[in-house]
Please model this.
Amino acid sequence: MVKKSRRVIFAVLASTALVSAGLTGSAGADEKNPVPSGSAAGPYVDAEAQLAEVRAAQLHSEGRWAGSADPGKKGLQRETREDLYPKFTDKELADRVAEDQKRRANAPAPDPDAGEVMATELVAEGLRVDIYTPPPGMSPEHLADILRKQGKKGVEVVRHGKAAAMPMAPGDCAYGSARTFTCPVAFWTNNGFEDPLVRFNDHTPAQWPVTNAVYKWHQTPNIDSAYRFNSCPFQAGARCVDVVSANYGPVWTGRWSGFFPTATQSGPYRENGQVIQLNDYYTPAGWTRNNTVTHEMGHALGLGHNVYSNDVMYFQANMREDIGGENPALLASIYSVYR
Model:
């Protein structure tokens, strides 16, 4: 059933060219030495062990996790701030799309390295999918090699290429430089709501601006995002995505991990099991924590890596912090029908 009053349909107006601004990492970061100096104190945390612990907490403790950090003032913030971040109107979203396309008008061709570092594995819960974001200066191939040496299964680098110029429809996998991470598209079901409701359950310390990222994505029409801190009690039809951080060592800056209920990497997400992990190891240089949090939430909602280097969803961490126009336009199209 089409949401007639809110369906967002655009034509692609410009090429998917990229610019290279904002991707310089710290000194010495390159293919042979791609890792900036770390800043986190204390021993490394096993990301897989933490992931299992957080997923267990999702099922048994009203969303509370014993490893939650002191959030500072953000732990007192409201679930949404539509007074400051209202939903985009069709015109506002179209204007943002035009702004994105104008920025790219004289940019170089798309980066041939742009794509996903993904890992897929069929497990008891369904098909597990992980998407990784490398730091500036690290190629997808290099990160994939690191993950394979760590014993990660099903690792591959998925290239995007250019998007076809076509009108938007709910099943489209690309719009301008924006991409869904799987095609056919992955999505949250409505579960009785007019728009799917995704609650981001924050367990991170004050330096990770999770509230700000949630409020930005909530502006997207046809899907609602809400902020919670270390509490995500049962609400019929809603679901929780946990956001955690730790010192995972010199690997990725962020990882999204979730499940599909069958062996197919598309269609509705499994209702629980989604977790975002943010790496405390790095001192941001050529990128920001705001960028990384916002980027990983884009994955949780259904987006893949953008082929435009000055975009919050670019395959490497960078300086862009706003969600742009084509990213929310693509999401609004995916969620413009009831599922």
Q: What stands out?
A: The two ends are 8 Å apart (CA to CA). Residues 245 and 278 are 4 Å apart (CA to CA).
